[in-house]
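Before relying on records like the one below, remember that each one covers exactly one chain. Contacts with other chains, cofactors or solvent are not represented anywhere in the record.
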Amino acid sequence: AGGRVLNSEKITQLCICNDDISESAIHTAVSRIRSKLKNKLSEPIIITRPQAGYCVNHTYLRNIHLRNKS
């Protein structure tokens, strides 16, 4: 999303099967992703912006890219 904050509605629109996805399903999916990755990553990859939505932690992704480049 180019660093933009996406709310649940926008995430649903971007999904292939957006007819069946509820807002609570988005929150559950984000929670499951976080719980699976929390012991593997030094910082969260998904950041919650209260009252706005979710965004990708670009600092983390930039650091991974720099480590992989060297």
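The mean pLDDT is 80.
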